[in-house]
Amino acid sequence: MTGMAQDSMATGPRFFDYRNGTLFAEDVSLTRIAEAVGTPVHVYSAGALRHAADEFRAAVRHLPGARTAFAVKANPNTAVLRLLAERGYGADIVSGGELRRALDAGMEPAGIVFSGVGKTDRELSDALEARIGQFNLELEEEGEVLARLAHGRGVRAPSLLRVNPDVDAGTHGKISTGKRENKFGVAIAEAPAMYDRLAQLDGLDLRGVALHIGSQLSDLAPLEAAYRRIGELVFELRRRGHTITRVDLGGGLGIPYHLQDRVPSPAAYGAMVARVTREWNVGLTFEPGRVVAGAAGILLTRVIWVKLGATHPFIIVDAAMNDLARPALYGAHHRFSAVSAGRESMEATIAGPVCETGDTFGVGQAIDRVRRGDLAVFHTTGAYGAAMASSYNCRPLSPQVLVDGADFTVVGDRMLPAELVA
Ligand SMILES: *Cc1c(COP(=O)(O)O)cnc(C)c1O
What we know:
By secondary structure, the protein is of the alpha/beta class. The chain has two domains: 2-45 and 294-421, Lyase, Ornithine Decarboxylase, Chain A, domain 1; 115-288, Alanine racemase (TIM Barrel, Alpha-Beta Barrel), CATH 3.20.20. The chain contains 13 helices and 21 strands. The chain has helices spanning 3-7, 30-37, 46-60, 78-86, 96-104, 121-129, 140-152, 191-199, 221-239, 266-277, 290-293, 326-330, 417-421, and strands at 16-19, 22-25, 28-29, 41-45, 67-71, 90-93, 112-114, 134-137, 157-164, 186-187, 204-210, 246-248, 283-286, 297-307, 314-317, 336-338, 345-351, 360-368, 375-378, 400-404, 407-412. Strands 4, 14, 15, 16, 17, 18, 19, 20 and 21 form a nine-stranded mixed sheet that branches. An eight-stranded parallel beta barrel has the order 5-6-7-8-9-11-12-13, surrounded by four helices. Helix 7 (140-152) links the parallel strand 8 (134-137) and strand 9. Helix 6 crosses helix 7 (140-152) and helix 9 runs parallel beside helix 10. The longest helix has 19 residues, at 221-239. The protein is elongated and about 70 Å long. The structure holds pyridoxal-5'-phosphate (PLP). Pyridoxal-5'-phosphate (PLP) is lined by residues 71, 73-74, 92, 115, 212, 215, 250-253, 287-291, 383. Pyridoxal-5'-phosphate binds at residues 71, 73-74, 92, 115, 212, 215, 250-253, 287-291, 383.
């Protein structure tokens, strides 16, 4: 199977596509980017980002009080965040570093949501100082500390209580967050009494509840089940005398990584939310990450060696697990295509140069035939790609490039080995 044949099966507008046998990002050939910037390099398409961002917003914006906060951890690149801010997105952050990124990118403080299971006092203070719009509390003591810090500043912290609905998201165990045994949120059975106590604290402006059950969900059923439980909790809290004005439904919508993957569309998700939340009478917050940024990025790499192996040849590429950790972390799959479309295919194992057997991107896969020196890409790396990069094996962080039409800009600098040592 050739790269061209594989990509012709993709649906929707194509921002990474072949022209005269060469893979382009919008109107820029990837060969040109490799020559100008080197490899490996993360390449984002501004058009693809705008398309996915607008598609998700269109699916939920008709819902009452809808707010979309992009999960910064999926792609914290400042140019990416700026573009999303222009499309009406706020930010869902999980650390003080992400707070700084979101503010630097020009995100409105009122549109920033602070999630995160272990916020330090320093991070809470900085977020209060910045006047962010929403704190999602992960445990009762966090609410007490935040209330004290806010009271000391003469303000009330706008807050939601994150609840763990005890629903199996049916996703990879390492990215499931909504089961009873996971570390996130407070048990739904304990939530009403805890909410009663937190609502009495002067420093908190407690507005409702939040949840996020996991990532890369390929089915709406677990989300719907979790939302129904949260809906019951909203009515229970009202019966206890609380004014509930906001519910944060989290993120988690999956995207196709294999050509045959079928995932719910944002429109189907929006329709389910509209149906389930019709009687809630609250404003809704959404925290999408992957569904906005995932398909907008590829990782461009060069083949260093084609090496004989016991069962299949090894394609040793210059990208490694430090550039793209998902395969090593979760056994995740990223499609691999040659930049110059050929007619032949081969079965091979793709691996990076890092000294770990886990530094493998796919075992015995049918891929485009490549030779030493050829350029190739891993698809769908715009979310949890560069975001998870490390300098393991003293490898420099790869640069990031944003393509917009016929232009491209380096938007994240490669760290040179000298700087790495410094
Ligand atoms: C990671 C995360 C998200 C985003 O998840 P996606 O699967 O990328 O949409 C949203 N909310 C919270 C609290 C998260 O931890």
